[in-house]
Structures are given as C-alpha cells and as structure tokens.
Amino acid sequence: MVMSSKKALKQDRRGGRRENAGRKAIWKNKDTITIRVPKLIATQVLELAHKLDSGGKIDLDTKSKIAENDAIAPSKSNFCEIITKSKIPDQGTAHDFVIDSNSEEATKHVCIFFQTYFPNLVSYNRFVELEKSALIPLCWYLHLRPRQSTGINFIDSTSLEICLNYRAKRNKVFKGLANWGKSSVGWYFGFKLHLIINEFGEIISFMITPANVDDRKPVPEMTKNFFGKLFGDRGYISQKLFELLLQQNIQLITTLKKNMKNRLIPIIDKILLRKRSLIETVNDQLKNISQIQHTRHRSVCNFMVNVIAGLIAYTYQDKKPSLNLTTQDLNLLQEEHLFPSEPLALTII
C-alpha cells in the first residue's frame, strides 16, 4: 500500500513516521540522527555498560577480558546503545548511518545487521531522554584515551554556538549558562571550547566555559603536569600568566600585537610558532567531522554528551593533523629548548 504524499507529510509533521513496527523500532523525525557503530572498541564499551548496569565496580587498571568474538549477553537497559550511538567511530572505517525521513535503507540496516550492538532500540525522543545517563562514562572513557605532553603544546579556543543570534533572548535551555562572545567571524551566543594539543594532534587538555570568559583564565588549570613550551595567539599575551607558567617549567610563546616591539627568540621557537595553525585545523575537524557544534540541543547534559562524544570520535581518527617531527628533531628540542635553565623574559614575536 502506497501512502499518499499529503498523508505522509501530515504524519511527518506530527513527529515522524514509525517504521519496523515492533519491539525494535526507530523513529524517523525531521531531525537527523547519526549512529556510529564501533567494532574495535565495542567490547570495551559493552564491558563498561554491563558493569554499570549490574551495579559492579569499575577497575580503571584492568584491561578488557572480553574477546571480540565472544558471546555477550545483551543489556536490557539500553546503556550500550546510548554509548555506541554517541558518535564513537570505529578506528579505520566509521560506519555512519544518517537516518532522516528519506533514509529507509539505513534504518533497516541497523535493525537487521546490528542487533548485537543495539538489542533494544528505542524511539528518537526516548533516546534523547536516556542520552544524559552516558555523560559520566563518556568522560571517563575520554580520560583513558592515550595522550601525552611531549613538551611542544599548542593552545587555542573555538566557539560553540548553541543557537542563532536572533534567538538568543528566547533560549531557555542554557539560560544563565551561555553568554555572548566574539570570535574572528563576529558575535555569537554560546560557549568556548579551550583546547591544548601536542605536535601529534592529540588532545591533551580541554575545558568548556561561557563565551565571555577570557582565554587566559583557564590556562593555569589546564596546564597542570605540563612541561616545555606552550604556543598561543595574541589572546594569551599576559606577563602575569607568563610568570605563573614559568614557575611550572612551561614557557609561554605568543604572537605579537601591532603596538608591541619585536624581541629575539630562538629560531626553533619561531618555526614552531608559525605552525600554530595546527590547532586551528583540529578545531575545524572537531566541528565538521566530529560535529561537536549544532543548535538543536534540548538539555545541558545532552550538549555535554555531544561535545565529549565528538572529542572521543576525534581520538579515533587514523590521520590527525601533525607536524611530522622525527625522533631526532624531538631529541634536539628536548636537549636545547624544552627545559629553560634560567628565567626568561616575555618572549613574543
């Protein structure tokens, strides 16, 4: 039986057409749903889910003892689905299924071939309600992702818009939390994502603040247990911040404002400072590939889940933006420049 276009449009306006009726069903709304099914990390996620569902304690030091091909009893609480649907991609090839009102094939594919990963599929609205329960486990999982400070660090902030500018006054979800900020492209309403990465493009530290927070304010908290050099833009110029970081064996190197005089710095620092665009490439991939920014959030928790899941998705990229430094280059930097033996003046260029 073929449904008329007027009747289909009427049902879509009511909230979406339900397909694959039964216990395992997916709602198809006007909003796009992105489902990413991981293969290599599925056992780790499932093990964490079963421990949380059963009320057991999580040992952060033990490795997963579940083999990839072992039979695992399906969870009844949908916790596995919440984590694996939160944009955690497979290392190598991410299986992305964009489900909208015109994508019937993707819906059937998930229901038929991924029943092990999604034993109890729920409606889209119900999934949005359950998504907040995955926030803490996702933060824990992101903390366990491999990362290290090698002595060459880049810092920057990027905007996270939560709505269009003309809708800022009517936004109720982030009332009292989000604020106005200004980026290189103009004013926006939302938050800031502060990032620190190393020369391999790995995320070392991050922090989310309202958009009106100064870029320099979260730096001391983000650079704990760091060493070496920290390269930033003009927004991080501060004598007080420079002296504070120098006590932690961190040398802050920033670009120069128009009304400031040039100061000599080592040629290696000058070259690395010109490579600061590396972190801007990371910000671009987080927004366009991991999709950490959109304007359809319905709760603060779901906003955080989307950002954390996007950061986890980035850590599984095979090719991250990198400086491609050799071991010899790193040894040279470590011997000569990463550990200053005497106090340094504010080094800018």
If you had to describe this structure to a student in words, what would you say it looks like?
The protein has 349 residues and is an alpha/beta fold. It has 2 domains: 5-144, no CATH class; 152-348, Nucleotidyltransferase, domain 5 (2-Layer Sandwich), CATH 3.30.420.10. Helices cover 32% and strands 18% of the residues. The chain has helices spanning 5-13, 42-53, 79-84, 104-113, 124-130, 135-144, 219-222, 239-247, 267-274, 277-288, 300-315, 327-336, and strands at 17-19, 26-28, 33-37, 95-99, 152-161, 179-183, 186-198, 203-210, 228-232, 250-254, 347-348. Strands 5, 6, 7, 8, 9, 10 and 11 form a 7-stranded mixed β-sheet that branches. A two-stranded antiparallel sheet has the order 1-2. Helix 6 packs parallel to helix 11 (300-315). It starts with a helix and ends with a strand. Residues 1-23 are annotated as: Disordered. InterPro entries: Tnp_DDE_dom (IPR025668). Residues 9-23 have a biased composition (Basic and acidic residues). Residues 148-300 form the Transposase DDE domain. This is Transposase.
Runs with pLDDT <50, length 5+?
1-42, 55-78, 88-107, 339-349
Q: How many strands?
A: 11
Order of helices and strands: HEEEHHEHHHEEEEHEHEHHHHE
Per the CATH scheme, the topology name of the largest domain is: Nucleotidyltransferase, domain 5
Shape: globular
Helix content: 25-40%
Q: What CATH first level of the largest domain would be assigned?
A: Alpha Beta
Overall number of domains: 2
Largest sheet: 7 strands, mixed
Number of helices: 12
Secondary-structure content class: alpha/beta
Strand content: 15-25%
Gyration radius, rounded: 23 Å
Spell out the CATH superfamily of the largest domain.
Ribonuclease H-like superfamily/Ribonuclease H
Q: Mean pLDDT across all residues, rounded?
A: 71
**How far apart are the first and last residues' alpha carbons, in Å?**
71 Å
CATH architecture of the largest domain: 2-Layer Sandwich
